[in-house]
Design brief:
3-stranded mixed β-sheet; alpha+beta; 4 helices
């Protein structure tokens, strides 16, 4: 990709022309380079995805892991593209060969030092605006999960720690995540 212009706003069409060897997210037309995740981040991601995958076998919803593009505002500028660590999509019309088009039902972001602010604040507001029904922020250092559950146009936040042992995924009836396994060393 050529040098980015400071005053230019980009769209998904621009994003598709960029080098595939460098990962970016696009927030309101502004690109943000993504660092490679740590091994602990990837271990937690694998454990969460594995538990979701096992639960969703034979059910209509599908889990995905990064990198896959989520186009949050495809019909309104198409200038916000995220790559959540994990997501679940229940509406198959949102899934195409290159991206998820619209809000996933459930998103998990695993904090890294370089993404903490984006994952906790900026993405929260974008996920809320797009209508993501449940959004978790997993903090590997503190061994906590903040579960944001959409209700009446805003998120209700519940905090969980490893001492809680399990969390129910509110948008996936009967799905229970074992936190002891997620945070095991």
């Amino acid at each position: 990709m050529d040098a980015l212009q400071k005053d230019k706003r980009y769209t998904y069409a621009d994003y598709l022309t960029w080098d595939d060897d460098v990962r970016y997210e696009l927030i309101d037309g502004v690109p943000y380079m993504m660092a490679s995740p740590s091994t602990e981040h990837q271990r937690i991601c694998s454990e969460l995805h594995g538990q979701l995958w096992a639960f969703l076998q034979g059910k209509p919803c599908r889990p995905f892991t990064a990198p896959i593009d989520v186009r949050l505002n495809i019909n309104k500028g198409d200038d916000t593209v995220f790559q959540p660590d994990i997501m679940v999509v229940c509406d198959h019309s949102k899934i195409d060969k290159k991206s998820i088009n619209g809000a996933p039902d459930f998103v998990i972001e695993i904090l890294s030092p370089s993404t903490s602010r984006h994952d906790t604040f900026i993405k929260r507001s974008k996920y809320l605006w797009a209508g993501v029904r449940e959004y978790w922020v997993v903090n590997p250092d503190e061994k906590t999960v903040l579960a944001h559950i959409l209700k009446d146009g805003d998120y209700i936040v519940k905090a969980y720690g490893v001492e809680d042992e399990t969390i129910s995924v509110s948008v996936l009836n009967g799905c229970i995540i074992n936190l002891k396994e997620v945070f095991s060393q």
